[in-house]
Structure formats: structure tokens, C-alpha cells
Amino acid sequence: MLDHEYTTKDIFRKNFFKDWRKEMTAEEKATITDLKKCNFTEMSEYFKAQSEARKAMSKEEKQKIKEENERLLQKYGYCIMDNHKERIANFRIEPPGLFRGRGDHPKMGMLKRRIRPEDIIINCSKDSKCPEPPPGTKWKEVRHDNKVTWLVSWTENIQGSIKYIMLNPSSRIKGEKDWQKYETARRLKKFSIKFNAFCSSKEEGETADTVGCCSLRVEHINLYPENEGQEYVVEFDFLGKDSIRYYNKVPVEKRVFKNLQLFMENKEPDDDLFDRLNTSILNKHLQELMDGLTAKVFRTYNASITLQQQLKELTTADENIPAKILSYNRANRAVAILCNHQRAPPKTFEKSMQNLQAKIDAKKDQLSDAKRELKSAKADAKVRKDEKTKKAVENKRKAVQRIEEQLMKLEVQATDREENKQIALGTSKLNYLDPRISVAWCKKWGIPVEKIYNKTQREKFAWAIDMADEDYEF
DNA sequence: GTCTGAACTTAGCAATATGTGG
DNA sequence: CCACATATTGCTAAGTTCAGAC
């Protein structure tokens, strides 16, 4: 991790050194007293060399590794549930290492210990052949609980939380749950509520300081009776899940604005904004409004309804397939922005943008050359009037057309990439957008579903690809 | 009511695989 | 066919929800 920014952070270094010293012998402890004086370059070089060696391997060696991975997958990557062979999601146990919390995490750098068979609980049915622990070891427990979906669990040592091995998203059990999620969100359509919130509460000092709706503090909002020509504007600025910043200015109803003013009266910046509300009160209230309604349903609803509406708005009939796909990506992007799904701009972004621009310029030159050739071929044909020159004109015309299409494709690509610089589309696509909306859109416009969903996504959304026709309405 | 823990979903980053143009 | 760019997959942390203890 030597090259990583983590290692420059004080908390990371402090936590690492503290945990490392716990592992030392008395002698080591006496010798190694200052992390600054420790030199890890030799180890770092070793791993770098390993990675280089891996890259430099011959085709045959790479193929061998691939086959070995496939063998492991076949051996450990599947289970039988209700008589069906199902793919397991994370069948490899998490290796030991240094904990990398996100944001300002107080525990970053702590030693994540190796998981041993004695830490492992196996959950399988009574009549099944229970997996054997490695020779000379024992599982912590073997149980037969058919009220839960996990196959294996263990307790990790950083937060003391339980980790699980569960089934792949393509499995029946996950697919049905996913379907159910969207059905609940669809029922929200009947209500004309616009509500964009989520909740959380956490122990201080154990986690990074992030908030959700119920735990927003006074310091996270500013109120503007008037702002940029709009009335009753609330400015949000806080760190949410994964310490991703949420910044937005939202005009609200006067009544909401006045209430927020009241909630902020006589409070310190670090006081709770909603001090009489907690997640259980909120969820109880939501449950009364609609069966199955919880805070996160709004996110699913907002995302899916926005995709549907954006697709309607952005797709035009006479466009070609690449242009339609651009429209799809734009609709997807609108959702990602709504949900605040961000990503760090790729390290190679500027460079790859320049390269693409260079390609576009080259293509433009090529186009004007082709046009010039077409012109002279036409002139030629006018004079000669024979079959051969006529055919030449036709060929040149086709060439121009082809280059124009290529140019357009490149330009579309450039626009798409620029607009996507800091936006992550994957999260919404995978977790919030009812796949039946996308499938219906594909069917309606004759777009192969492979253009929208890759192999993994098609496996996860198999249920939707199967059931949605082109008239599907969310 | 309030707190805690178990179970499950959602999240962004990094490594790896694949595709493409020179 | 190679180098580079892009797409996909893997990884695991960080959320939400709900039930049950107190």
C-alpha cells in the first residue's frame, strides 16, 4: 500500500503501527519503535516484481491460470438450493490486510486478521453433504437455518460485524427479492408524494462522520428566503454514504421552509436538525402510509420513474442505434445525478479525451479528402459518361457516407464520455432502475438488449428480460 | 420507547479481461 | 500482433431494515 494516499494519513499510520506492535515479539517491540524509521521498500519491490512477472507471462501460462481459476469456480462457486444449481457470489474468504475505511474513518490502517476454519459458521440443510473443513481443523459451527439465505458467516475483527457468503444476483432467491423491490416501488406511483430521503444513526468515533436524513445536523443546511430568483431555497452540504459529498440547492414549499427555520432556532451547528425524529418513528409513519413502504423505496421509485420519463423525452424515432444508446445513457445519467452517484474522474481521463479529439480531427481530414475525391469523380463522370466512372462515383459516395457515420460515432462517444466524467452510472443501473423499463425500451426501438446490459447484467436481470414486453409501464 | 445485532442491499475503487487501431 | 483504452468483474465497506431484548 506504500504508493497509496492512505499511508500519508496520520490515523492510518497510528492504527497500523499500534496493531503491528501487538504482533511483535518482545525483542522486535524493543527494536521497532518508530514507523517513520521503517523501510518497507524491499517488500514493496517484491510485490511489484510479482505483478510485472504476471503481466509478462506467456499466453500458455496465462491460459493455465485461467483454467485453474475456472476449476476453483466449478468446485467452490456453486451450491444446490431447492434442487437448483446456483452460483455463489463471494465464495473466496476475505484475505488479511490493512483495513481501508472510506472518508475520515477512525479505524483505517488497523490489522484485518486472517479468517480460519474455526471462525466459520456453515449454514446448509440437514440432509446435505456439509463441506469439510481443511484437514486438522474444525468449523466453528454447522447449522441448518432455512429462514436465512446465507451459506457461510464469520465475524470480522475491525467493527465486530458479521460477514456473509451469499448467492449471486442471478440466483432465484435474489432475483425474486429484486422483483419484489420494484413492485413495492411501483405501488408508490399512486401517491403524489415527493420525498427524497434516507436515514441512519451511528456510534461516534467508531465510523466516519456521515449523515442521512434523520441524522442531518444544523450545520448541514442553509436557508435562503430568496436565492437566484427562487423563493424558499434550502442549501444542503453534507457527507453521505461512503463520505461522498452531497451538495444541492432545493426550493421547497413555504411551510417546509418555515418549519426548518423553527427546527434550527436556538441550536448549535452540531445539534440534530430533526431532534424529535428517528429512523424508527419515520419508518413506522411510512408503514402506515403504505404497506411495505420504507425510506429506501423512495429512492427506487424516484430513480425508476425518472428513467422512464427521461427515456420518453429523449428518444426520437428517426435516430440510429448509436444515437438512441446515447439517449439511454443520458437518461441513466440523469438518474445517477439525482441519486448523487459519483466517481473519482479516471486517472487517465484528460489523456484519453485528448486522444479521442485527435481521432476526431483525423477523421474530419479524412472526410474532406473523401469529399474532394467524390467531387472530382463526379466531374470525371460528367465528361466520360461510361459505366466505369459511374461506378467510381457511387463508390466514392459510399466512402463519404461511411466516414460521416464513423465521425458521428466518435463525436457521440466524446460527448458521452465528457458528460460522464464524474458520474457513476453502474450503481443506479444495477440497484435502482427497474430493468423492465430498459427491456421494454429495447423492444420498442429494436435495440438488442446486449447494447444496454452486459453478460453479468443480463444474468441478474434474466427475470425482467423474460417478462417485460414493449408496453411495460413502471 | 430505545438499543443492539443479524441479515440483507447498495457503493465506489482497483484489478483484470477484452477489444481495437496502428 | 502488440500497446493502449475501455469494459467488466471482484472486492469489501457502508448503508437500511427489522426483530427482539431490555
What's the number of helices?
A: 15
Q: Can you tell me the CATH architecture of the domain at 5-165?
A: Beta Complex
> What Rg, in angstroms, do the CA atoms define?
29 Å
Largest sheet: 4 strands, mixed
Distance between the termini: 46 Å
Order of helices and strands: HHHHEEEEEEEEHEEEHHHHHHHHHH
In total, the number of strands is 11
Poorly predicted ranges (pLDDT <50, ≥5 residues)? 194-199
Strand content: 5-15%
This entry's quaternary arrangement is single chain
- Major sheet: arrangement of strands: 6-5-7-8
The CATH superfamily of the domain at 5-165 is known as DNA Topoisomerase I, domain 2
Q: State the share of residues found in helices, binned by percent.
A: 40-55%
Briefly note the structural class of the backbone. Answer: alpha+beta
- Tell me, briefly, the overall form: globular
Q: Calculate the mean pLDDT score and round it.
A: 88
What would your notes on this structure say?
This protein has a domain at 5-165: DNA Topoisomerase I, domain 2, CATH 2.170.11.10. Helix content is 48%, strand content 11%. The chain is built from 15 helices and eleven strands. It has helices at residues 10-23, 26-31, 41-55, 59-76, 172-187, 254-264, 279-289, 295-314, 321-338, 349-384, 387-419, 426-431, 435-445, 455-460, 462-467, and strands at 78-81, 84-87, 97-98, 111-112, 121-123, 141-143, 152-155, 162-165, 221-227, 230-239, 245-251. The strands form four sheets. Strands 6-5-7-8 form a four-stranded mixed sheet, with no helix packed on it. Strands 9-10-11 form a three-stranded antiparallel sheet. It has a two-stranded antiparallel sheet with strand order 1-2. The longest helix has 36 residues, at 349-384. One of its GO terms (molecular function) is DNA binding.
